[in-house]
Amino acid sequence: MDGFKRKTPEEILLSISKLHRGSLKIYIGAVSGSGKTYHMLREGHNLRQQGIDVVICAVSTLQRPETVEQLGDLERVPSIHWMKDGTEQKDLNLDALMERNPEVVLVDGLAHLNRPDARFPTRLDDIKYLLANNISVITTVNVYELAAAMEVAHKLTGIEVGHCVPADTLELADEVRLIDATPEMILNRLEEGHLKGNKDTAVFKRGNLGVLRELALRLVAEDVNDSLEAHREQMGILGPSGATERILVTAQYHWNGSIYVRRGQQIAKRLNGDLHVVTLRKVNKPLSKEASAFRRSIMKLVEKVGGKFEELPLRFRRCIPKALVDYAIHHKVTRIVLGHSKQTKWQTFWQGSVINGILKRVKNVDVFLVADRAARDGERILPAHMQVSKEPYKYKRLSRQEVQAKIEKIKRGRFKVYIGAAPGVGKTYTMLREGNDLLKKGIDVKIGLLETHGRKGTIEQIGELAIMPRAEIAYQGVRLEEMDTEAIMKARPEVILVDELAHSNVPGSKHKKRYEDVLEILEAGISVIATVNVQHLESLNDAVEQITGIRVRETVPDSILRAADEVQLIDVAPEALQLRMREGKIYAMIKVDQALNNFFKTGNLIALRELALREIADDVDERLESMERKNSLRGPWRRKEVIYVCITEISQADRLIRRGFRIAHRLKAAWYVSFIAVGNGEHWKPKLETLEKLTVRLGGEFVYQEVMSRKAIPAMFASQASTAGATQMIVWKDATVKKLLPLASQMDVLIVADYDLWQSAENKVK
Asked: Most-buried pick from 39, 406, 571, 596 (CB within 10 A)?
């Protein structure tokens, strides 16, 4: 759907000009050897099978076996060879390409610098020339060769880049695809001698590989977010998308303004969001000398932390809530950060409360109140630096429990997970291809559970892999099939391939969920390669419902990703995925229209893709932090955080628990869930057991308590949180909030918005 909005003359002219311009697709990887050229060549073969005229020019295989194999019989237009510092270089032969006039050119090295006497100075200029002449181009680039990432890459890894591609290059592309490769995969290729000819030796440190991988994930996520914003604007959709965070800090020209900015920066960093800072300044009232100094200080700080600063005009104090909420709506803010109220009850009665005014007006936006604990605890708002273990700890004698834990880890099988934004991205296809590669190396690999959904390309990838028979289970008079975990453990292959981790087993099976079968297989010393979609992660359940309007019933705990030794994203652009759908490569043709009009709508796919990219970037960052890396793209965390989730309503409990988990996980915090109900909750018992299981599964502690009057709830929450040493409370925006806030002023308080799920105009208009 393109929406009903009339195109402007400029948009019409742009659309017409694109008809006479070639398309540009860019494959991005973290480093050389991640598989960009391999996938580019494979796409070339697929295009040629569709009758499209494809040639290659200036493609560098570096004699890597898999890449050389992919060259096949693709037609090559000879490149122009020349020497630079004793190394052979390849330039595009523009004259030969123009004479040949193919539909598509495959070319490596987007960041390449041409010879001194070339028509254009860079390969990017060559590509622009080809595009202008209606020749499409597919090319490759490493993330550290992009201007948007080069400086950060150099700072964190020390990598030097001779030439980089301008920051707006990705905007020029019609499609950007990330080829994700784990450090383990890159190092394995290096060990096998498949990365010969690569001179970027600095990248092949495990920490550097992780940093560059995270950079690539985040950079592509930003690009996807831009396209999502453009799509939502075109569709006339207002409000946050649910895929990314945007933090608004309101700070006055006062000594504590910098504290709020710093806290907002930490939140934005840990949530991978944008930071906006605003101050409300009375119209026609000059600033005092002190306020002017604070203004300069705050503006300088906001610039330093990469935020956006703006002054909003203010006439009367009572207008503050409206001004902030209007700004939040216009800028698609997801969280407003401000300080606790310091007003007395009488001041609030006569002057009104800014916080209450915001809560009354705002929807779909969380409110975060920053506690000023400097007077009591000393400064602890600013993030603490990570503490690196000192050398002597290497010689510390392990306890019996530590020894046993290490032995169990050694015995356990290796676990790898392929994750994607949606069905059909190629997770199963890639898993089977890896299985066959391992089989060729003499490793005993079998398929434990495979769901091909009738996809021809997937079925072809089975190759020589043996498929384990499924177990038959009787249920309500019908014989149903599930993965035969017992048979797998008796057969004891070295590696087992398992599709769809989130699947719920037939009642009567040993385990309720397939991921539990996988954990048992791993404990038996058998390695597992598995697949899952990002929408099945438990903590993302609400975000996925907000994006798609669909509540995903089958989930896996987020700990599954943390338990994996490797997590690899399979990234596909929404347009490419929809094309696969229309061609019947994902579902049967009879289901195609229904899928494209529901889950596979453009807005849904873009948002889910961004969600997947950011989630795996977070996973990479968690792994890097566990290695005690000093520099973190998300910033360091506090020394100690304790999260306390306060629940009074069954209907919102699941969502608050998942929110508590995600915040606690990002801040390395202990977390608790407290459910306080009025009267006898015996009729809630089944639901309470479900909530407790959810909390425990996500790593929290659950407490349930009953009170005689609703008036007692705020004081009890405040007391419980204080006893637990909570630094942050998470509450629902309900009637108890107003009375709770004065009792919790020494803590940060996150007031979770009453989201209107399924707000998307795209999801409403059929």
From this structure: 571
